[in-house]
Amino acid sequence: MARLSRLAGEVEEADRLSHRIHDLGDLLDLTESENDDSLLVDVTAEAGQISREVERLDLRVLLSGDYAENDAILSIHAGAGGTESQDWAQMLMRMYIRWAETHKYKVDIVQISEGEEAGIKSADLEISGPYAYGYLRAERGVHRLVRLSPYDSAHRRHTSFSLVEVMPVTETDEELAVNPDDLRIDTYRSTGAGGQHVNKTESAVRITHIPSGIVVTCQNERSQLQNRDLAMTVLRARLLERQLEERQAEQARLKGEHVEAGWGNQIRSYVLHPYTMVKDLRSGVETSAADAVLNGDLDPFIEAYLRRAPVPSGG
């Protein structure tokens, strides 16, 4: 029903745009017959708005791969480098939260592992909204930061890396069957900030998928049941992503293509010293407005990726 409602909304949007184009044609005819410059200004303004709407809908056509319209699980992992990399991972988490908020998407922090001194070691975010996975799959890969380190007493320049993973959230259990016998579920007391409740009840949940060795934890909710449901959501997403990767790797093998390892696939560099620049290494898109990008202005990079990348088969 949710998908039906979404598709109906898209059809209505296309119909409205079609009517606006028809009306614009009538207005243009009137402008020519009346030779009225004020009407020409209206025609130009409306044509510009329609053009932007068409571009937006054209971009949505590129979001036609499997699961593109689904919610997403976005995971961030700090690379080697201790506090510096962990701080970079936290900067990325903030960047994606800002991007999601700009697009009116809902963000739930499923799991977060704090760094010893600052930053985070890892985090899992559930980002919910139309085509969240379709857009965010453009962010998969290694993100590189170059800056003067605030944690180096000599204030030297450091390079840090973090890995971003993006997985689709399955809408029903039928999309990916998980055998309960393959799961080991442990409960324990939560740690970290959260008030008195955190350390008094075993509300945190750890789920291990025995055949794959995938381990998922969740401790952010007060209820053990809520944490278990969220952990299962992340587990299904990880299993589905592994399934999609295996399918794509097999297709690439049959085609004789080289499949590059995910951790080695650096996609974007963020340079804050000695100059400011963010450059996507896949599309070549770059900007000197690094602060804007780190505040969530990712659409130019995402759009360029979607326009140049083939629609993934099964992802």
State the CATH topology of the largest domain. Alpha-Beta Plaits
User: Briefly, what CATH class of the largest domain?
Assistant: Alpha Beta
The ordered string of helix (H) and strand (E) elements is HHEHEEHEEEEEHEEEHH
What's the CATH architecture of the largest domain?
2-Layer Sandwich
Helix/strand-derived class?
alpha+beta
- The total count of strands amounts to 11
User: What overall form do the CA principal axes indicate?
Assistant: globular
Biggest β-sheet: strands ordered side by side in the sheet? 2-3-1-5-4-9-10-11
What is the average of the pLDDT values? Answer: 84
Strand content: 15-25%
The helix tally amounts to 7
Whole-number count of domains: 3
Query: Major sheet: size, sense and barrel closure?
Result: 8 strands, mixed
Instruction: Tell me the span between the first and last alpha carbons.
Output: 22 Å
